[in-house]
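Incident log, entry 3
Record: DNA-binding transcriptional regulator, PadR family (204 residues)
Problem: checksum mismatch between cached and fresh output.
Input:
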Amino acid sequence: MAHVILGLLLIGPQSLYGLVKAFEAGPSLFYSASSGSIKRALDGLLADGLIEVVSTEEGARGKKVYGVTDAGGAAFRRWMTSEIVGPDLETAVLPRQFFLGLVAPAERVAVLRLIVDRIDSDVAGLEALEQRLETVEVPDGYQDIAEYQRATLSFGIASGQFTANWFREQLDEVTAAPDPVHGPDGGPAARSKETAGPPEADRP
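Fresh output:
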């Protein structure tokens, strides 16, 4: 949660309301978060010095707008480029894919390699389990149960292989991309198209 918020705030400073809407527009596809959990994460990031209040609107509500500090930017980059851990593969890799454009082009290859390595490791574990199960004798009366349990395992392997191949394609595309400094012909790279700026202003 904290690193997803840092990524959103690196795109542009936002209020709590803006972050809730930003979650609904993107990260909610792979990460579930309520306004309460986002507020708690904001408070923690603020206490740790990873974000700061960049402005406070006038009025009774005094809506605060948050931005990322230098320490927060460094923490986000460490997370993006560190070994991928945790049991939930989807919430471990999809946020890194979602925010891949926030790290330097030279680092994107390393991030994607970490993702592929993690998926390959998970698939290898499932394949090893499948091989062990092939040597297990199923007692009479349990064959139908075992058949569909193993089919579920087979789905996990096939799904993991598909995901790994999809990220390998991403890795190939990033690896083959022109040098952002010199361009494809060795000369100065043309100015890239304007990237997505901060979200629209928060609703008053």
